[in-house]
Design a protein that fits this description.
Length: about 200
């Protein structure tokens, strides 16, 4: 299996857009302030925006699509002639396969958890006399971690796809060359046998 430029372009594009969305989610995290209820003696939280949740879920979906494409093209490391031989390329493909999945799962966990936490809004918190009230917000760095792991997932997926393609193609070329060698080696023997029969 040769490396497809179109597959690489799709994988890189999806991961880069997911990375940009994760950075946008980090910068647009919901902020809140405690305000007084004008009808009673309670206080409540007012949140400004939920754009971070939308960005995070969009990045989650794009990263999932990218991973599905990579594993669909490589058949999730289950098939391939070159991967059975135990070559160096096959070993690298297995290591990169594990690395891409670990970084992918880490990125998806950060993006999904960050989106869910950012969507959570605290309502009534207490009474006026209490000054230790705080509104629940997503802490800084969750989406940033998801963005960093998205880049690692991009690197792992591209290198895994390249190593898998190299291992698969290399195994096919090896078997093909062995077949050609056996045919050329048997040709002189047939010619000698014909000469002995004439003699």
């Amino acid at each position: 299996m040769a490396v497809s430029i179109s597959v690489l372009a799709v994988i890189i594009s999806l991961n880069l857009v997911a990375f940009v969305l994760a950075i946008g989610a980090e910068s647009r995290r919901s902020t809140a302030k405690v305000v007084n209820d004008q009808y009673d003696e309670r206080t409540y939280c007012v949140y400004d925006t939920d754009a971070s949740t939308v960005y995070g879920l969009s990045a989650f979906g794009l990263l999932l699509i990218s991973q599905m494409i990579v594993n669909g093209v490589t058949r999730c490391l289950c098939f391939g002639k070159g991967l059975v031989t135990g070559s160096c390329s096959a070993t690298c493909a297995i290591i990169l396969f594990i690395f891409s999945w670990l970084s992918f799962l880490g990125a998806e966990a950060c993006l999904l958890a960050g989106s869910a936490r950012n969507a959570y809004h605290t309502k009534y918190r207490g009474y006026f006399l209490r000054d230790d009230l705080s509104c629940a917000t997503l802490r800084r760095g969750v989406f940033a971690a998801g963005a960093a792991l998205t880049l690692l997932s991009l690197i792992g997926s591209v290198l895994y796809y390249w190593a898998h393609s190299r291992a698969d193609t290399g195994g096919w070329e090896k078997h093909q060359n062995e077949g050609v060698g056996m045919t050329s080696a048997s040709y002189p023997q047939q010619q000698q046998t014909g000469e002995f029969e004439k003699a």
